[in-house]
Amino acid sequence: MRLVMMGTGTFAEPTFEALLSGFAGDVAGLVTQPERDGGNKRGSTRQTGKGMAAIAAAAGVPVVQPESINTPEGLEQLRALRPDLMVVAAYGQILSKDVLGVPAVGTINVHASLLPKYRGAAPVAYAILNGEAQTGVTIIKVTPGLDSGDMILQEAIDILPDDTTGTLEARLATLGARLAVEAVRKYAAGGPVEGMKQDPALVTKAPKIKKEFGLIDWRKPADEICRFVRAMQPWPTAYTFLHRPGKEPMRVIVTKAGEAWVIGRPMNAGPFPDPGIPFNNFTPGAPGMKMPDLTVFCGDGAMLEIWELQPAGKKRMTAEEFVRGYPVVEGMRFGPEVPS
Description:
single chain; alpha/beta; Rossmann fold; Methionyl-tRNA Fmet Formyltransferase, Chain A, domain 2; 2 domains; 7-stranded mixed β-sheet; 8 helices; 13 strands
């Protein structure tokens, strides 16, 4: 059976390597996105590892990289590979009916969620954002609808407390490779491969994340902002702006953070200040209150402790290092570039 892999980035690489290992001689080609800016174009969540084209070249597998697989040129290149079965993982383009009509047996997709939850381009980030305890990989039959095909295989894994989108996606990529091989073996055995239909009442969406999505909204609860910081790693990163009296706002990337708790805050200490103000800049208090290096009030009155951050044009640093260079002063706060 002639297999054609369609995929881009580090999530797809383990699946491609597993197919090359498990079905030596059957992988007839690779379809992957064209190289852009050395494979690191900003604005894409597809991270670069070994490189799909490099893996194919090392294995002697033909590579096609059309700008769009759905154009007449893209279709012609795909037909020349004569696939029986196509395996898709994070390819990055919606496949037309014409494309899906090319393989003799069909097309399957390695999707990084427990479908029908999180259909779309960013399922890993949304699972972290929404505080899911688990996520996983689902192998589906590809149909013209977005991630709506029948489910062939599905397996869950736990989301760890310190997981970022990058670390969680790496584990899901390994799981996806194993499940993809298992699914291909079902097809190779001959006969129909059955799948379970998705329950439309349980569908949730995970649309593409854009660069501007990374702006931290300090009005949200602290636990939600903590998940947001993890979900935005490694791209587009969670960011905010540091406002200091008499200075221009400075863009700051927050790379690590956790919830913080005030010890011994008296009931009569006064109302919490507006979100975005560092705790050290908040005067009402009493002996015994915790004085962390860089802790910021959030919208629920709870606080978020920044552990690691990166000022514009600088390297990553701990909160302690940051405060030495940018001491907390009266009027200092974090927020959007133009305060609302």
